[in-house]
């Protein structure tokens, strides 16, 4: 099976799970306006993650979303627990989902992990956001994956207007 077929399977699986039947053409078209619109929309992060899996970089969106959830934690005990999970999953050297951040940022997180604050992952999250915005987001918009999703929704929209 070619890599092109693989993403098609994922769209169809997503369709079976009701994702692409729930996402609107309007939402999908807004994604091309800015990375911010994609990542803050209802279904954008989910669809973008499916695409990032084809590039083997879905750890970026996972980390970014995990940081968004982390910032909302109010309990210090839970914050410590989640901070350690984020560290072992994404930050430490050879982590299973290691993200691409520079050494000073990694070292700052290591220093702060004992007493983690709400903002201790902010710089790493900002770097990952920039990686996605500059690198994978433009490729996503040009990808057959995004173009076919948009086209299928435009076709569905046109069909529903006719019926």
Automatic annotation (TrEMBL):
Q: Which SUPFAM superfamilies match?
A: Regulator of G-protein signaling, RGS
Pfam families xref list: RGS
Q: Where is the RGS domain?
A: 34-150
**Which PANTHER family does this one have?**
REGULATOR OF G PROTEIN SIGNALING, REGULATOR OF G-PROTEIN SIGNALING 13
The protein's name in its UniProt record: RGS13 protein
Organism (species): Lophotis ruficrista
